[in-house]
Design brief:
This protein is of the alpha+beta class. It has two domains: 62 residues, Orthogonal Bundle (Arc Repressor Mutant, subunit A); 119 residues, Nuclear Transport Factor 2, Chain: A. 41% of the residues lie in helices and 25% in strands. The protein is globular and about 40 Å long. 37% of the residues are buried.
Amino acid sequence: LGLGDPAAVVAGRTGVRLAFVAALQLLPARQRAVLTLRDVLAFRTAEVAVMLGTTPAAVDSALRRARARLAEAGPVADELTEPDEPVVRALLDDYVRAFTAADPDALVGLLRADAEMEMPPVPTWFTGRDAVVGFLATRVLHAEDWRMTPTRANDQPALVVHRRTPDGVDHPYGVQVLTLAGDRIARITAFRDPALVPAFASDIRSPT
């Protein structure tokens, strides 16, 4: 967190969660993407610049603006709680089963009614459980043979995503970071970037 920046406004598990949620609600898309990649997934500035097709100076500028905006706003997600670890694991397992089985009805039961989904840096945003599940059902679930492995991204629940081709080979696809509220998913942030997958190689088992 912060990676050498003493002005970092997020620290520790709860701080990351609150800052992450605040960012998604308050910041422009580019600032959300930069903050998530730097302060949640802990990538270096140069790496983020490559991922977003910009310069390190632009990344640093966006990060400073994002942190300043969060510092002004303060926590905005008081109802979010840190679920117990068994609850987190059960929710992740249920999500993996629903996603890989292409079962939108099962996903409905896992999301809050006001759940949101975004795919930074793509400026696509879905608000509300019906919109999120509708998008996944029509554009994502049946598009590939998905394999997902639970992990953590800077102590937040996350999933490493692979797609399995007809020859049985699993190809890195990206990472999903989940924001939880109690025993439901409040937000899905999906990074469609295979370059993120190797960062979790030592923390994950074979995809399921």
